[in-house]
């Protein structure tokens, strides 16, 4: 396990971030606690520091985990449960926003340590947890066996009897605390988001985009959409974001990465960028170098927006940070163009 550096205690709120919290490192796990709501942000370790988050929600000594990282994240997840003063037996739910491996790859391995937990997932995702063969094959085709082993570990199946297929309107009870599920396609057709009425917050998976702390400025959080392959659907994503905003949320808990507040301007930024990204895709569609064209245009789009936002990093550093996301977003836009061409 990589060594984690303790982070400073948050004492003030930055616009768009809402850092009313304490951050700490204990037993090798980095966590940020939103104390007033018993929500703990867990750094799963996937992708580096503050890249991939899971969440622990606690109420009346009962707990739910939302997403879990990869199989290599199991030590961090269990350490987070212990650091919150709980035993693994008190975790009743593992809620998965979707079954992409950075969110759900560790579910099978983690469940072996959570004797009473059930896994909640969209009906379309449930078969892939029970039999992850296709997930493994698809990811291995993209990353290769060596990178799969190094970054994701062994993807273990989840016992069918521990899987709860949940769609629109399903609720999970933690004592008197209600977590409500809605379907939010756009990033993936099996994507769910989780509403916590107590904190008036959404756990958004990848629906509400990506927001890396390195790109924060005096204006708050910098955000961009994720159109990674293979099921990006821009209209569905826009509708899902609008549904999230209809609840008048106070905060969003993103997988990539952490809690952001003042969601209205962030939603507007996502809307603008989704439209700009589809315009880029359509503009590059007939080019023989379509993918390269989209990568260049997406890079220019994000760099310009980062400058306008007042990000402290220079252009080269921003581009390095976003290289993988730019590549994946271009691939996803390509899938969208190809699907549109097939369906007419």
3D architecture notes:
By secondary structure, the chain is α/β, with parallel strands linked by helices. The protein has one domain: Metallo-beta-lactamase, Chain A, CATH 3.60.15.10. Helix content is 37%, strand content 20%. The chain has 10 helices and 14 strands. The strands form 2 sheets. Strands 1-2-3-4-5-6-7-8 form an 8-stranded mixed beta sheet. It has a 6-stranded mixed beta sheet with strand order 9-10-11-12-13-14, with no helix packed on it. It is globular, with a radius of gyration of 19 Å. Residues 1-27 have low confidence and may be disordered. InterPro entries: Metallo-B-lactamas, NDM-1-like, RibonucZ/Hydroxyglut_hydro, ST1585_MBL-fold. Residues 51-256 form the Metallo-beta-lactamase domain. This is MBL fold metallo-hydrolase. Pfam families: Lactamase_B.
Relative strand content: 15-25%
- What would you say the CATH architecture is? 4-Layer Sandwich
- By CATH, the topology is Metallo-beta-lactamase, Chain A
Oligomer: single chain
Please report the total strand number as a whole number: 14
What is the terminal-to-terminal distance?
49 Å
Low-confidence stretches: 1-27
Secondary-structure element order, N to C: EEEEEHEHHEHHHEEEEEHEEHHH
Q: State the helix count.
A: 10
Number of domains: 1
Main sheet overview: 8 strands, mixed
Overall geometry comes to globular
Supply Rg. 19 Å
């Amino acid at each position: 396990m990589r060594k984690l550096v303790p982070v400073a205690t948050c004492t003030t709120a930055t616009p768009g971030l809402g850092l009313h919290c304490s951050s700490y490192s204990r037993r090798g796990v980095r966590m940020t606690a939103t104390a007033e709501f018993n929500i703990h942000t867990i750094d799963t370790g996937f992708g580096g520091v503050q890249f991939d988050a899971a969440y622990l929600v606690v109420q009346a000594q009962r707990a739910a985990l939302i997403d879990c990282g990869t199989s290599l994240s199991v030590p961090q997840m269990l350490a987070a449960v212990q650091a919150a003063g709980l035993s693994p037996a008190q975790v009743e739910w593992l809620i998965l926003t979707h079954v992409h491996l950075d969110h759900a790859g560790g579910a099978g391995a983690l469940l072996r340590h959570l004797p009473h937990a059930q896994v909640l997932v969209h009906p379309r995702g449930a078969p892939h947890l029970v039999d992850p063969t296709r997930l493994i094959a698809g990811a291995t085709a993209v990353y290769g066996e060596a990178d799969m082993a190094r970054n994701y570990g062994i993807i273990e199946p989840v016992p069918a009897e521990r899987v709860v297929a949940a769609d629109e309107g399903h609720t999970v009870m933690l004592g008197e605390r209600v977590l409500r599920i809605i379907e939010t396609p756009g990033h993936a057709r099996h994507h769910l988001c989780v509403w916590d009425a107590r904190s008036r917050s959404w756990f958004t998976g990848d629906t509400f985009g990506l927001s890396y702390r390195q790109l924060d400025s005096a204006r708050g959080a910098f955000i961009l959409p994720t159109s990674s392959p293979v099921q990006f659907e821009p209209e569905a994503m826009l509708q899902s974001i609008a549904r999230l905003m209809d609840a008048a949320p106070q905060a969003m808990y993103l997988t990539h990465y952490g809690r952001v507040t003042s969601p209205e301007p962030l939603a507007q930024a996502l809307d603008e960028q989704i439209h700009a990204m589809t315009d880029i895709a359509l503009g590059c569609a007939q080019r023989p170098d379509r993918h390269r064209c989209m990568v260049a245009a997406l890079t220019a789009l994000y760099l310009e927006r980062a400058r306008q936002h007042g990000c402290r990093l220079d252009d080269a550093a921003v581009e390095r940070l976003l290289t993988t996301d730019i590549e994946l977003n271009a691939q996803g836009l390509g899938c969208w163009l190809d699907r549109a061409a097939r369906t007419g």
